[in-house]
Specification:
mainly alpha, two-stranded antiparallel sheet, globular, 2% strand, 356 residues
Length: 356
């Protein structure tokens, strides 16, 4: 049975703007001169940059609600959908590992890192994609509560200091020097996309599923009420379990999911209902090509030693004396996003999309 799920231009637009934001914060011209909102919080706290990854995971959940769930309701066998979800998730994880292998080979990094953005997306997609096929909405809410409360319960006794929290201890025990951060002197490490912190990230994706269900049902008032509830609950929880992207704390899950749901609500109202242009749609329709292509381009430019001269001669040399060191660094990031905007526009006109 062929089932064509409903497609919301607002979701493509929001996904695309999120991917564009990923590229913007990942490629400044000079990491020593980056405006504070374009950097992650040093530890506790949230900056606009700390919203980018949870926004994308939230949108993954919305897409599951709009893509996987309608096929199940239309009678597509569950076994067929499970295989499709797991196969796609496997390809996403494999692509993430391939990118990290390329970075390891080209950038002379001390060790190969198995965890990463695409790996987390693939794991969350696999688990949540299967969960929605077996659990009804009420059970999904129960799972969200269990994940957030359970994560707090296991993390709290160890505290939330860098390198000593439970997630870091687990990752150090299992993966040692293969982590994003590794201190050879103390033999301790931590990884913002590590094993234990993936559990609350699953809750982020499930909250996206529930928001996508409301969007599909036209329950915008419920979605709006959820925005307020999640943001307030996240802020209320933060004195006990601080907002922290690296730990993906439960308060952070609720606060960022509330912000993502707010963005989804606004995008739906403006794009789907009022007919505003779906700015970012090309990034959203070709999100994998944008993220992977931009990463490969960055690694190649860095590996060949071209990134520094390109920034210095194209931006810093003539802009710094006039505007200071921060403006050319930001301009380089904007130019990088602009290059990919043009490339994706060409791909879109030709109907070329990278699907995995």
């Amino acid at each position: 049975m062929s089932v064509v799920p409903a497609r919301f231009a607002s979701v493509d637009a929001l996904r695309g703007l999120t991917v564009a934001a990923m590229l913007l914060v990942n490629t400044p011209g000079d990491w020593s001169h980056v405006y504070a909102p374009l950097l992650h919080a040093p530890w506790h706290g949230v900056t606009p940059t700390d919203l980018v990854f949870p926004f994308f995971l939230f949108i993954v959940g919305v897409s599951i609600a709009l893509g996987v769930v309608p096929r199940a309701e239309a009678g597509v066998p569950r076994s067929v959908l499970v295989r499709a979800v797991l196969w796609r998730a496997t390809k996403i994880v494999a692509l993430g590992l391939a990118l990290h292998l390329l970075a390891f080979l080209l950038l002379d990094r001390p060790s190969f890192r198995p965890w990463g953005v695409l790996q987390r997306i693939g794991l969350c997609f696999a688990i949540v994609g299967v969960v929605v096929l077996y659990l009804r909405p009420r059970a999904q809410w129960a799972l969200i509560v269990a994940l957030l409360a359970g994560y707090w319960a296991v993390m709290a006794p160890w505290g939330y200091a860098p390198f000593s929290h439970l997630a870091a201890r687990v990752d150090t025990l299992l993966f040692g020097p293969w982590l994003y951060e590794w201190d050879a002197a103390t033999m301790r490490g931590q990884d913002p996309e590590g094993l234990l912190t993936t559990l609350p990230a699953i809750a982020t994706t499930l909250l996206g599923v529930r928001a996508g269900g409301w969007l599909r049902a036209g329950a915008t008032r419920t979605l709006g009420a959820a925005v307020v509830a999640m943001i307030l609950l996240g802020l209320a929880w933060s004195p006990l379990f601080p907002l922290n992207k690296a730990l993906w704390t439960s308060s952070y899950v609720l606060f960022t999911a509330g912000c993502a749901a707010l963005a989804l609500t606004l995008a739906h109202a403006l794009v789907d209902r009022r007919g505003w242009p779906a700015i970012g749609r090309r990034f959203g329709a070709n999100a994998i090509a944008a993220y992977v292509g931009a990463a490969v381009m960055t690694y190649v430019l860095l590996g060949l030693g071209w990134m520094g001269p390109l920034y210095q001669q194209g931006f810093a040399d003539w802009m710094t004396p006039r505007f200071g060191a921060y403006v050319p660094s930001f301009a380089f990031a904007l130019a990088f996003v602009g290059v990919w905007w043009v490339l994706l526009a060409i791909l879109d006109r030709r109907g070329w999309y990278l699907k995995i």
